[in-house]
């Protein structure tokens, strides 16, 4: 590697660029590292390796692969970032959990409050991390497109179907790639370079969404992605990639932040077109 990343932002960019060339174990470390910044900053090598599901020596090999002499140098980048920034999403979630008693989580109202607080933290994180330039770029692409095609399956289908609804409500041509009859490939074939594809996918990333996105990119179709990691298989091909960290309560992941982002894009486009919906 020609230059060792000097900041966490540079390291994240380098990881994203090099992700496809990493070994399976190093990819595992990269994904854990990007998704758990507080744990990397404050954890011991033994704890981090156990949580990441790798041998401690793999952390050292990961650091070496990016030009560092040891994993402690990687940790210092995360620690410095926490000093300079406001509390991260993970820290906010930890605080929210601490505020709610562990006893009585089976009480419906307590459980509701748990979800509410976790989603508040996730939405605040969304507002802190989504770049204005990315929002403007995405709205530019949507405005220029002849039509917008949206794909998202399983959990992501909720966001995809809402976004299609919202765009139609502001008189935009919007088509949901729903794969009826297993016809994802056939529906993808109708997308042209004058259109835009919005692909929404969260881990584990749906093969159907990846197939539609791949087919669109091969025809030079602009790709707007909503996903949950910088190393999502969709990220490297995206014209604009939004990384959204959703709230998770008792392993049940929310969709509030992704829906909020989709709504903001639709209303932002409506303002651009001076076509604000009545509802």
UniProtKB/TrEMBL annotation:
Annotated HTH rpiR-type domain residues: 9-85
InterPro entries xref list: Homeodomain-like_sf, HTH_RpiR, RpiR-like, RpiR-like_SIS, SIS_dom, SIS_dom_sf, WH-like_DNA-bd_sf
A single GO BP: carbohydrate derivative metabolic process
Domain SIS: start-end pairs: 138-279
Keywords (A to Z) from UniProt: DNA-binding, Transcription, Transcription regulation
GO molecular function, one term: DNA binding
PANTHER family: GLUCOKINASE, TRANSCRIPTIONAL REGULATOR
Protein name: MurR/RpiR family transcriptional regulator
